[in-house]
Design a protein that fits this description.
33% of the residues lie in helices and 24% in strands. It has 361 residues and is an alpha/beta fold. Strands 13-12-11-14-15-16 form a six-stranded parallel β-sheet, sandwiched between helices. The C terminus is likely disordered.
């Protein structure tokens, strides 16, 4: 939705009602992922894409009939033939489910008004839309505290909306959930995940650059101002010249965020890990050899942390890529952060077991 806001604002001046087509489920090879969206105006204008071109004409026809009141909100099911697949660069076909419904972009819909506010204030929120049944097309917004704006059409659906959205808000991934036997599409809108880097060392420079490319907001923390400069760390979003135990609590790190300690120094390590292990941050990494980490583990136990707590710390940090240079080490660290965030262990794709089913991520 975020990428269509400017277009929807422009269209609303002439006609605030638009049809919205959203990819809610895929199987096999498909041109666009779950979450891809297209808006269609009553005069035939369109923005966005649900298929890279091979299905747009059919979707526009369906959308116009919906805007004219000749068809109710519904899920359109398309098969991508091998021929169409080749046209859009795929080796084989797949299937796509597209949710089609209308919305009014004039502030009258409480869910969409709340979404606009959440995006402007960079607050996490999830747009929940009923995909089938008598309430198909009804939309509500669930905020990060579980509050609801708008209604899905029944008290039971409204009561289950927060639970349906919770996991999607944590992962940041859109998909279909079930509430009271009804399928709903959950589209989370979350701020960029944050990577806190403790230690403005050379690896931190490369790590900041790579993390930013991967969509992270990067904060580098180091009280040594000689190291913590914009010239050395041009890709960091924020430089914090404070001790980590003073700076980290203010970042409010959550399950989608990550933190890495690169200091090689116990006076940095200990306060950093003490703070991080008391937070819900999704990934904790600490540089050092197995011997160094063994000593670290003993200190953490002496501080009262359990083995389960300590197991959250990834050290030696990063996937085993045989890294040697700072840039390669940064790549190994970011690879592990992504793997942990996606619930994977890393390793060769060729050696991984094939997926048994495709569909909602």
């Amino acid at each position: 939705m975020r990428e269509l806001l400017t277009t929807l604002d422009e269209w609303a001046a002439a006609d605030p009602e638009v049809a919205v087509a959203t990819v809610v489920r895929t199987s096999g090879s498909t041109p666009r992922p779950v979450g891809a969206r297209m808006a269609i105006a009553r005069d035939g204008r369109m923005a966005g894409s649900v298929s890279g071109g091979c299905l747009e004409g059919a979707v526009v026809e369906e959308a116009l009939s919906t805007l004219e009141g000749r068809a109710a909100p519904r899920v359109l099911h398309y098969g991508i033939s091998d021929e169409l697949g080749w046209e859009v660069g795929l080796a084989c076909g797949g299937t796509v489910d597209v949710l089609l419904h209308t919305m009014r972009w004039d502030g009258s819909d409480p869910a969409l008004a709340a979404l606009r506010d959440a995006l402007a204030e960079k607050r996490a929120a999830a747009l929940v839309t009923v995909t089938d049944g008598e309430h198909a097309g009804r939309t509500a917004l669930v905020d990060e505290d579980g509050g609801l704006a708008g209604s899905l059409g029944s008290a039971a659906l409204d009561a289950g909306a927060a639970a349906a959205a919770a996991g999607r808000l944590d992962s940041g991934q859109p998909g279909v959930e079930e509430v009271e036997g009804v399928a709903v599409y959950v589209e989370p809108h979350v701020p960029r995940p944050l990577l806190a880097v403790v230690g403005a060392v050379h690896i931190g420079i490369a790590l900041s650059t790579l993390a930013r490319v991967l969509g992270y907001r990067v904060v580098v923390i180091d009280p040594r101002t000689a190291f913590l400069t914009a010239e050395r760390l041009p890709d960091a979003d924020e430089l914090v010249a404070r001790w980590p135990d003073d700076a980290l609590p203010e970042l409010r790190l959550g399950p989608r965020d990550a933190a890495v300690c690169l200091s090689h120094d116990a006076k940095f390590d200990e306060p950093t890990l003490d703070c991080l292990l008391r937070s819900p941050v999704g990934y904790i990494g600490a540089i050092g050899s197995r011997t160094t980490h063994g000593k670290r583990v003993a200190r953490l136990r002496d501080s009262g942390f359990t083995d389960a707590d300590i197991a959250r710390v990834h050290s030696p940090v990063g996937l085993d890529l045989g890294s040697r240079t700072p840039e390669e080490i940064a790549l190994a660290i970011m690879a592990e952060i992504v793997a942990v965030r996606r619930g994977r262990r890393g390793g060769l794709l060729a050696a991984a077991a094939p997926a048994t089913a495709a569909g909602t991520p």
